[in-house]
Design brief:
This protein has 26 helices and 21 strands. With 739 residues, it is α/β, with parallel strands linked by helices. Strand 20, helix 21 and strand 21 form a beta-alpha-beta unit.
Length: 739
C-alpha cells in the first residue's frame, strides 16, 4: 500500500532530493520513511484546533481561541529575574484591537525577537492561543500568529477553522517540520493507485484514495478527518484480508491424504480406557477436526481454549486418528520443558498404547518419541530413525523438528502448541516435511478476541473450547498490595504454608532469574525505563527462593526452575514437583504454558505488575487443575490509583480469558499481537484498531473472500495487486531481518 508505483520516488537521491537531504536522512533513519508513498502514509496522530474566530469583546476564559485583529501598539520591556539578574530579561507586550475590544499579547525571552520585528502598529494578523488573566486583564501568552497580507476573507476563514495535524515525530524532527514536508509531497497523492475495487468503494460510500490522503493531511473539518480515516481503515483491513484469503485459497487447492480413523483401531482403544467422559465442547471440536481430516485438502484449524479446557486431549485424539489411518503426527512445543511435559502426559494417558514394538505393548500400540535440541547424540539418532522408518507414530518436540535432517516416513498431521511463539514461516517449514502437505492444527491457550483471530489467523478456521472439564475447581484471585499493607504479604506466605500442610503444593513466580548474566549492573546492559522509574530491578527467582527458604517458608521443600538451567536439571525439578516431592517451586514464566500438576493449588506472583494481562491469566491457569480449589495472589508495590493496579484488579475480578484479552489488547494496542503472529503483516496498523473496528474487519473479510474466489490472481485489480505486493514485501523483509 505504501509503495504504489507512482509514489516510489525516494525522498533522498544523489542528484535531486524531494526534501532537503538532512530532513530526508532523519526521516529514513528515525521514522523508516524512504519514499514519497511512505511519507504520505505517515498519518497525523491527532489534530489541534485553532478554535473558531472570536470577537475580542466576548473572549471565553481558558479556551483556545483564534482572533483577527490589528496591532494597536507594541512595547519591549526589560526586567530583572532569577534567570536574568542584571535586568537583561525581555518581555514584549502587544495590544491588539478588532473594533469590539482590546487584548494584550505577551512574549518572553528569546521569543520576543521575531514578533518585535513583525508585529508593528497597523499590522493585521490572526492570533491563536489560550486566554488567561494577568493583573486582572485578559491576555494571550506566546500566541501562534499568521500575518494577513492583503485582506483576503477566505484566508481568515480557512486559517481559523483549519485543524493543525500533529504527526508521530522524533526528537530530531518536530511534528511541524514533518507537516511542512508533507505539504511538499501532497500533490503526488493524486497519483496514488487505488487498491479498492471501484464497486466496493462506491457501494460503501468511501472517498477515493487521493481524496483520503488529502483530507487526512489537510482537513478543513472534523468530517474530513472521519471520511479519510473510514477510507484508510478499509484499505488496511481489506488488503490484509486479501492476503489471508489468498493464502486460504491456495491451501484449499493443495492435495492432502484424507485420514480417517479405523473403527476398532488405536483411537477407539484409547477412548475405551479414558477414566472420564469428554465435555460437550471437546466432542464438538473433535467432530470438526475429524471432518477436516477426512477431506483431501489440508486442514488448517486454530483451536483456542481457556487454560485447562482440555485442548491437549482433543489434539491427542486427532493425532491418534491420523496414526490409525497409517500416518504420523508431530506436536511442536515452544520450550523443552513443555515438550518433555507433553511427552510425559501423552505417554501416561496412552499407557500400553504408547508401547508400540515393545514387549507388553497393546495390539494397536504405536511408539511416542520426543525430540529436542539438547538430547544426546545416541538418543537423538534413535528418535530420528524411528521417525524415518515410521516406527514412531507420534513425535513431540521443539524447533528441533524443523531442522532439515529430520525426515518423516509419512507425516499426516502437525499440531502446533502456543501458536503465538511460532511465525507463519516456521509453520510452513514443518508442513514441508510431508510427502503431501500434512493437516495442521494450531493450539493456543491465550484467548483471542474474535477480531484478532480474524486479523492474525485469518488463514485458519477457528474452534473454541470455552467449557472447563468436570472436576476442575474455581480459582480465587486477590491483589496483595505489599507496599501499602505489608501484613497482607505475610498472610500470603501463611496461606502457602496452610496449603502445604493440607498436602498440596505451591508455585512462586518471579520476573527475573537473578544470576550474574541476568543482572543489568554486571552485564553493562541498561535497565529498562520501568526499572529506572521504579528504582529497583524486578524480583529474581534465586534471591526470592533463598529468602523464602530461610524465612517465611523455612522447613518446606523449596526448589527453583528457570530457562537457563540444563535441560536435564529442569526435567528433574519438574519430575520431583509433579511427584509431590517438592512443596514450593520458585520459577520464572517457564511454567506459563502446559505444566500440569493437579496437586498444586496456590500461586504467588511477585511483582505481578511486570507481567501482561494474558500472561497473568496463563500463569494462574497452572493452579486449580485438580479437585481442590485454586488460589492466585498477585503481589505488587504499585500505588492503588495507577494503571498497573487497575490491570491487576481486572485480572483478579474475572476468570474469563476472552474478556481479559480484550482489556489487554485495549491497553497494549495491537502491534504486539500482530507482530508476533503474522510475521509482521501490518503490525504497523496505522488507523485500524482491531477491537474498535470489529465490523470493518468482519466486512473486509467477507468482501476479500468474494474477490479472491472470483479472481484469485487479482488480474483485473492491478491497484490491489500492487498494494498486496507491498504488504507481502514488508512481511518478507521483516522475516529475513529476524532470521
Amino acid at each position: 500500500m505504501d509503495l504504489v508505483p507512482a509514489l516510489q520516488e525516494p525522498l533522498q537521491q544523489p542528484l535531486k532530493s524531494v526534501l532537503g537531504p538532512a530532513t530526508a536522512k532523519v526521516m529514513a533513519e528515525h521514522l523508516g520513511l524512504h519514499t514519497v508513498g511512505d511519507l504520505l502514509h505517515h498519518y497525523p496522530r491527532r489534530y489541534e484546533e485553532r478554535g473558531q474566530l472570536t470577537h475580542l469583546a466576548d473572549l471565553p476564559m481558558d479556551e483556545h481561541v483564534t482572533v483577527v485583529a490589528m496591532v494597536a501598539d507594541a512595547r519591549l520591556h526589560t526586567f530583572a529575574s532569577a534567570k536574568a539578574p542584571r535586568g537583561k530579561g525581555q518581555r514584549l507586550e502587544v495590544t491588539i484591537t478588532d473594533g469590539s475590544g482590546r487584548l494584550q499579547l505577551v512574549f518572553f525571552g528569546n521569543g520576543v525577537h521575531k514578533p518585535h520585528k513583525e508585529l508593528l502598529p497597523g499590522t493585521r494578523a490572526m492570533f491563536a492561543g489560550k486566554v488567561s488573566v494577568f493583573n486582572r486583564r485578559l491576555q494571550l501568552a506566546h500566541p501562534a500568529y499568521e500575518l494577513l497580507r492583503g485582506d483576503s476573507e477566505e484566508t481568515v476563514e480557512t486559517w481559523a477553522g483549519s485543524l493543525i495535524p500533529l504527526y508521530p515525530a522524533t526528537a530530531k524532527l518536530e511534528s511541524w517540520k514533518i507537516g511542512k514536508a508533507l505539504q511538499t509531497v501532497l500533490p503526488s497523492a493524486q497519483d496514488a493507485v487505488d487498491p479498492l475495487p471501484p464497486a466496493l468503494r462506491e457501494g460503501r460510500g468511501l472517498v477515493t484514495l487521493p481524496e483520503a490522503l488529502l483530507k487526512i493531511h489537510r482537513p478543513h473539518t472534523k468530517a474530513d478527518v472521519e471520511d479519510a480515516r473510514s477510507r484508510l481503515k478499509w484499505d488496511e483491513a481489506f488488503v490484509l484480508q486479501i492476503a489471508l484469503a489468498r493464502r486460504r485459497h491456495a491451501d484449499a487447492q493443495l492435495p492432502a491424504v484424507a485420514r480417517r480413523p479405523r473403527e476398532a483401531g488405536l483411537l477407539a482403544a484409547f477412548d475405551a480406557r479414558l477414566p472420564f467422559t469428554l465435555t460437550d465442547g471437546q466432542q464438538k471440536v473433535s467432530r470438526e477436526i475429524f471432518d477436516d481430516l477426512a477431506t483431501e485438502h489440508p486442514m488448517h484449524r486454530l483451536l483456542q481454549g481457556e487454560v485447562g479446557s482440555g485442548k491437549t486431549m482433543v489434539a491427542l485424539r486427532a493425532m491418534l486418528a491420523v496414526v490409525d489411518a497409517g500416518g504420523q503426527a508431530a506436536m511442536l512445543a515452544p520450550t523443552e520443558v513443555l515438550a518433555q511435559q507433553h511427552h510425559r502426559s501423552v505417554v501416561e494417558m496412552m499407557g500400553e498404547l504408547a508401547e508400540g514394538g515393545m514387549l507388553g505393548g497393546a495390539e494397536h500400540a504405536t511408539k511416542v518419541v520426543v525430540l529436542t535440541g539438547s538430547m544426546g547424540t545416541a538418543a537423538r539418532r534413535r528418535a530420528m530413525l524411528d521417525l524415518a522408518t515410521g516406527e514412531a507414530g507420534i513425535v513431540i518436540g521443539t524447533h528441533a523438528l524443523i531442522e532439515d535432517k529430520v525426515q518423516f516416513h509419512d507425516l499426516g498431521l502437525v499440531v502446533v502448541d502456543e501458536q503465538h511463539r511460532f511465525g507463519v514461516e516456521q509453520r510452513d517449514a514443518l508442513r514441508g516435511k510431508g510427502k503431501q502437505p500434512p493437516h495442521l492444527l494450531v493450539m493456543t491457550a491465550t484467548p483471542i478476541p474474535r477480531t484478532v483471530a480474524m486479523t492474525v489467523f485469518g488463514d485458519l478456521e477457528t474452534s473454541v473450547l470455552d467449557q472447563l472439564p468436570a472436576g476442575r475447581s474455581p480459582i480465587a484471585s486477590h491483589v496483595v498490595p505489599a507496599a501499602d499493607k505489608p501484613h497482607f504479604l505475610a498472610r500470603a506466605w501463611e496461606r502457602v504454608r496452610e496449603e502445604v500442610a493440607n498436602g498440596h503444593q505451591a508455585y512462586v513466580v518471579c520476573p527475573r532469574i537473578g544470576d550474574e548474566e541476568d543482572d543489568p549492573k554486571k552485564t553493562g546492559r541498561k535497565a529498562s525505563p520501568e526499572d529506572e522509574a521504579e528504582k529497583r530491578p524486578p524480583l529474581a527467582v534465586l534471591d526470592v527462593a533463598a529468602q523464602l527458604a530461610q524465612g517465611p517458608l523455612k522447613g518446606l521443600g523449596v526448589e527453583v526452575l528457570h530457562g537457563r538451567m540444563h535441560p536435564d536439571d529442569k526435567d528433574a525439578v519438574m519430575r520431583r514437583f509433579a511427584a509431590g516431592e517438592t512443596d514450593v517451586l520458585v520459577a520464572t514464566t517457564v511454567i506459563e504454558v502446559g505444566v500440569n500438576v493437579p496437586n498444586a493449588t496456590a500461586m504467588v506472583i511477585m511483582d505481578a505488575d511486570r507481567f501482561g494481562v494474558s500472561q497473568l491469566h496463563q500463569l494462574r491457569g497452572r493452579v486449580g487443575r485438580g479437585s481442590a480449589p485454586g488460589l492466585c495472589l498477585l503481589v505488587t508495590e504499585m500505588p492503588e490509583e495507577g494503571a498497573a493496579r487497575r490491570r491487576l484488579n481486572a485480572v483478579a475480578s474475572t476468570l474469563d480469558g476472552f474478556e481479559l484479552s480484550r482489556i489487554d489488547l485495549e491497553q497494549r494496542r495491537e502491534g504486539d499481537v500482530l507482530g508476533q503472529a503474522q510475521s509482521g503483516a501490518r503490525s504497523s496498523l496505522r488507523v485500524l484498531a482491531v477491537i474498535e473496528d470489529e465490523e470493518v474487519i468482519a466486512e473486509a473479510r467477507e468482501e476479500a473472500a468474494q474477490v479472491v474466489a472470483a479472481d484469485p490472481e487479482l488480474t483485473n485489480l492491478p491497484g490491489l495487486r500492487t498494494a498486496l505486493d507491498a504488504l507481502v514485501d514488508e512481511e518478507r523483509e521483516q522475516y529475513l531481518e529476524k532470521g
